[in-house]
Amino acid sequence: MRFWKQILTTKKTRRELMLYVLVGVLGTGVDFGSFYLALQADTPVIVAQWVSAFLGFTHNHVWQHYGVFDHNQQFPKTYGFSLFIAIISISISGPALLLLHAFILNIWICKVLVAGTTFVVLFWIRKRWVFTHSDHI
């Protein structure tokens, strides 16, 4: 609950959230665009999901590291930790997409639901554990 209160009361956190959303929208374009292209190339849905999510992740992480979050961490450290988190997230997103698709026939609605859930969870994780201030850089 403290996290959500911080969003409502702290200007810096609101700014980070707004920039995170903007970067996320652009990253969604990368993710969905590459997903579409992969499907057009007859790539299996789960592989298309994993590849497109990884491309979207890399796009977003670069922007988050250099422009969104206020932190003092080195890029290799944040990228490595974020990549670890993303691999878990991407690994879960493929089966989640297939599971949703068993109940919702439109693959794009499933994609939006999976991407939206991931978006919210990853903002919280990155804000709390990845992009932090540390005396031990």
What is the SS-derived class? mainly alpha
On the 0-100 scale, what is the average pLDDT? Answer: 88
Helix share of residues? over 70%
Outline type: globular
Cα(first) to Cα(last) distance is 29 Å
The total domain count is 1
Q: Low-confidence segments, ≥5 residues, pLDDT <50?
A: none
Content of β-strand: under 5%
What characterizes the major β-sheet?
none
Main location: membrane
Organism: Candidatus Magasanikbacteria bacterium CG10_big_fil_rev_8_21_14_0_10_47_10
Pfam family, one: GtrA_DPMS_TM
Membrane topology: Multi-pass membrane protein
Question: Which short descriptors sum up this protein?
Answer:
GtrA_CellWall_Glycosyl, mainly alpha, transmembrane helix, GtrA_DPMS_TM, GtrA/DPMS transmembrane domain-containing protein, single chain, 137 residues
